[in-house]
Amino acid sequence: MAHLMSRRGFLVTTIGAASLAGIASFAPAAKGATQTDGTTITPTEALRLLREGNARWVAGNPQRIDHTTNGRELVKGQWPFAAILSCADSRVNPENVFDVAEGNLFNVRNAGNVAGDISIGSLEYAVAVLGVPLIMVLGHSSCGAVKATQAAVDTGRMPGGDIDAIIDQIRPAIEGLPANHTIEQATKANARHSAKELIDASAVVRTAIDKGRLDVVEGVYNLGTKRVQFLP
Which CATH code is given to the segment(s) 2-230? Predict the structure, then answer.
């Protein structure tokens, strides 16, 4: 934990002492996510927007709906209604998956959608400064990082280089499964593991959850059907 917090010290210099004080008490420097009528988006409403957007994407009826307040210009700020921790896979674009306009989602992407220190620090910024009410950890079918971790667990051989750091992040999720598990089970387990790592490592996230200002959910995107399975 101490290692994670020290590595995430970049947040101090990024947003300054005044905003850091806001993080400590969870008083967002920004107004937070708002709908086009100016009302605040709750965690439940943010999840509904993601569900509805994905339904349009699955149906082949994308509209790129913009949920930010009228008059707010992206060059002057950002007002995302959700943060997405997703895989860096080029086939997974959260704005497409959830059918929303540019600026609606705060995207944190890496191979395997893992909750490492930089990803956690980025999400803390989204919660404490931008006021997002929802974080979704989004895995996807045929994830190469999950497959590589399965192979490493099965054979004991690591791929080498800094890819090993990704394997190490995903390994606990895989090792907790039965020996005959499927890639689908592994992908779900990894999404849940990343969400747990995020919550366990971040006091900012836990405080926001405890105050009812934030929810953390998991899902898996199917590359073939385009449907997101929202995990219970």
Answer: 3.40.1050.10
